[in-house]
Amino acid sequence: MTRPKFAYRDGDTFVHGVDARAKLTALVVVSLGLTWASAGVTAAVGVVTYLVARSAGVSARELLRDVRLVLVILVVGTVARAVSDPAGLVPGAVAGTVASARFVVIIALAYTVSATTRPGDIRLAVESFLEPLPSVEETDWGTMFATAARFFPLVFEESRRVRDARKARLGERRSWYSRVRSTAFTLLIRTFRRADTVALAVEARAYSSERSSLRGLVWERTDTAFILVACSVAVVAVVV
Amino acid sequence: MIRFEGVAHERDGERALDGVSLEIDSGGFVLLLGRNGSGKTTLLRHMNALLTPDEGSVLVDGVPTDEDGEGARRKVGMVFQDAGSQIVAETVKDDVAFGPENLGLETDEIRERVDEAVSAVGATALLDRSPYELSGGELRRVALAGVLAMRPDVLALDEPLADLDYEGEKAVVERVVGANQDGKTVVVATHDAEPFVDLAERAVVLEDGSVAEDGTPDELFSRGLEGYGVRTPCSYR
């Protein structure tokens, strides 16, 4: 099997070692900060994000390859913004580019987090966030997030299989519309089936909300420092 | 003991199981044979309570599965035909630990069971690997380890040798035999009885969701089962 997009990759880098709670908190805080960020700050955060991703073993090439579909959507959005902005084509294009750049940085951050955090640790982090809330089944929510984190790459894997099956029978010679239509339809059905199988696999092994865990999360001083840096980035993004 | 009492199950408007009555004794080794769509997988899924009967009942140690599905899943461990789809975690270690975690065991106990199960299937070297990096044979062994780690009384295996090369097949058969010798009940649904024919003490042939034949492999294969879409092992030709 080829490693699907957004899947966890084992490693012992600094980012791998950061507590899942710290990484998820940093992702949310920086993403919120980026919502208000100027072009310059967005670019700076983008550079920092790239360095963090690189240190975690994620190359720019992999990142671009895996999120290229999202990039296409953002380019289309930017063009739409440019032609529809009442201020004119150039200001519209600039505003659209900055907005798209923010999304690109947020996606790169999310990609880095998912590539360096085990779904099991995401489960524990979500459980820990929800634990103080009354009448919330934190174990079920945690498992739901972890399963989604596992399932997201499987959808990409199915998509690759559908494309390969099409290519193997000279499907690339068909029109663009025909290719998209056949892929989307098949992918939808296979995704539902796969979801069903994952649910069965979980159920078959006696899933229970009273479950324990092989791993535990351990909060270190470096995690606190990580959060502080993330908060500082978010504050700078909002203030500057 | 697992008992099927007049079990019927409908799928997509058709009867996948139709009045199946069957008793599987503790510690036995049973082959489920039959062509594609004969109801083998559906029967196995009833043992693990992934499916419950539309008519009749399935009892695991005397308890109906539709009353205590979780209890049935603790006692009957099932390995799917597509082993890759059974993997629910991002590393082998986490996946094998998934079942014991669901049993609510202490961390040390989970660790012990994970080590024991991966060692039993010869997958210790794979512990920290991602499932995406594994071959078909390795995935199947990991799926088996994930079930063994729950220490079920019954192993329900759906086409456990599909897509395996000779070495992979040998490893899985050895582990299954070992589990049976340790006292576990083994139920294997398969097209290809050859690797199991000398090990199983009983064979049940399904046809259109009903039990068509039930006896020792020797009795059934001496008569030939080609009419049910089952290839006759070499030793009986």
Please provide a written account of the structure.
Chain B: InterPro entries: AAA+_ATPase, ABC_transporter-like_ATP-bd, ABC_transporter-like_CS, ABC_transpr_CbiO/EcfA_su, ECF_ABC_transporter_ATP-bd, P-loop_NTPase. Chain B: It is a peripheral membrane protein. Chain B: Residues 2-233 form the ABC transporter domain. Chain B: It is found in: Cell membrane. Chain B: Probably part of an ABC transporter complex. Responsible for energy coupling to the transport system. Chain A: This is Energy-coupling factor transporter transmembrane protein EcfT. The complex is a heterodimer of chains A (240) and B (237). Chain A has helices at residues 14-17, 20-35, 39-55, 60-66, 68-84, 89-116, 119-130, 138-168, 176-204, 221-239. Chain A folds into two domains: 1-118 and 218-240, no CATH class; 137-214, no CATH class. In chain A, helix 2 runs antiparallel to helix 6 (89-116) and helix 7 runs antiparallel to helix 8. Chain A is an all-alpha fold. Chain A is globular, with a radius of gyration of 20 Å. With 237 residues, chain B is of the alpha/beta class. Chain B is built from seven helices and ten strands. Chain B has a six-stranded mixed beta sheet with strand order 6-7-8-3-9-10, with helices on both faces. In chain B, strands 2-1-4-5 form a four-stranded antiparallel beta sheet, covered by helices on one side. In chain B, a hairpin with a 2-residue loop joins strand 1 and strand 2. The radius of gyration of chain B is 17 Å and the shape is globular. The interface between A and B is large, with 32 and 43 residues.
Task: List its salient traits.
heterodimer; A: 0% strand; globular; B: 237 residues; 6-stranded mixed sheet; 7 helices; 32% helix
